[in-house]
Amino acid sequence: MARTMSQSWTAHTARTLAAAGHRSSSAREEVIAAVDTLGCSVTAREIADHLARQGSGVGQASIYRALELLERLQLVKRFDVGEGIARYEPALASGKHHHHIVCSACGTVERFEDDALERAIEQLSGHTRFVIAAHDVTLHGECPACAGQTSRPAD
Question: Taking CA atoms, which of 1, 61, 120, 132 is between 20 and 30 Å from 25?
Answer without folding.
Answer: 1
